[in-house]
Amino acid sequence: MAAPDAGPVSPDTDTGPDSPDTDTGPDSPDTGTDAVELGFVERAAPARLLGSQFPSKVGGRPAWLSLELPGPERLRCDRCAQPLLLLLQVYAPRERAFHRALLLFCCAAPRCARRRFVALRSQLGRVNDFYPAEPQPEAGAPLRPPPVLRLCRVCGASGPKTCSRCRRARYCGEEHQRADWRAGHRAECGTAAPGAAGDHTVSTLNVLFPELELVTEREDEQDEDECGETLSAAAADVCMSEVMEEKVLEAMAKHATKEDRIFAKFKKRIALAPDQVLRYGRGGSPLWVSGDNIPTDSDIPNCACGAKREFEFQVMPQLLNHLKVDHLGESLDWGTLVVYTCTQSCDPGNAYILEFIWKQDFSAE
């Protein structure tokens, strides 16, 4: 698994508050890596995907890192004004940030003509306002109680709005309050006495993307152009067939357009791991799906701190297969979503800072 300053970390990796004090201070080297970590989705127990476990995951409610949440107005589509939903989040510590998470949100409104995508970064030091700096005791010593979060019971975003009748159900805005009222809160609202047992924090209305764990592994760096001597006869035949096919493609490529060559490179690169939904390679280069709409350096805005942004990871189109989005219409689609983040990983305190997403679609041709 990747080191803390090189890529996303799975819950089984030895980092975080319970890990030894590894080299994560300001004097650690801060360099990008040519190695690429591939992300795949797996089902996981809900307890593994809680914020206290620092997960990387797809869908569900946000597993907030900093518990000083962004206001709901920051997570609203600027086209249709509907609330955004969590698409995925990646836990990727760096030497300047003992804890660090990147959360991607998108508009899931069925009739939105141009969906908005938003990337937010949160990072905390080893000593912070929310999590213990040292390993937690197994029993006995009391721990600092977590703050009570006022979350929208539909989407899990900040919920400043309260049901005027029961005074317990909270919402990010009127859209989710009205939808939840129609979905069943009308019947349950006010039926229990204040303080009564029961879960009033989660709605029966399910508008979220399916929740899955993101697990990573290093991309295979074997030479794809040669067949190793240790292969079995059957594997060698397959490999030789692939080599011959590649030679044919190379011959065709001499007469192919630039667009054809870029898409052929994309298909060849993902062929060894076709189920990948994410590629993480901070400081490297994205794998483009098309020759159209590739950004120049001037297209990538600097961070609010003034530092340049660099490529950190991209979301692959294979993720769409796991989102169950047929009911959303044809507009929820992408070739790849490329996330650029601050090269200095500037410290926003407990706030969530906006990063940059470049959306590339497949060529229309």
What does it look like?
By secondary structure, the chain is an alpha+beta fold. 13% of the residues lie in helices and 19% in strands. The protein is built from 3 helices and 12 strands; from the N terminus they run E-E-E-E-E-E-E-H-E-H-H-E-E-E-E. Strand 6 and strand 7 (170-171) form a beta hairpin. It is globular and about 70 Å long. The model is unreliable at 13-32 and 223-232 (pLDDT under 50).
Tell me the Rg in angstroms: 23 Å
Distance between the termini: 39 Å
What does the largest sheet look like? 10 strands, antiparallel, barrel
The tally of helices reads 3
* Helix and strand composition category: alpha+beta
* Helical residues, percent: 10-25%
Strand segment tally: 12
Low-confidence stretches: 13-32, 223-232
Based on Cα principal axes, name the global outline.
Answer: globular
On the 0-100 scale, what is the average pLDDT? 82
Assess the beta-strand content as a share of residues: 15-25%
SSE succession: EEEEEEEHEHHEEEE
Side by side, the strands of the main sheet go 1-8-2-3-4-5-12-11-10-9
Per-chain topology:
Layout: E1 37-42, E2 57-58, E3 84-91, E4 99-107, E5 117-124, E6 161-162, E7 170-171, H1 174-188, E8 212-218, H2 233-253, H3 258-270, E9 278-280, E10 309-315, E11 336-342, E12 353-360
Antiparallel strand pairs: 1-8, 1-9, 2-3, 2-8, 3-4, 4-5, 5-12, 6-7, 9-10, 10-11, 11-12
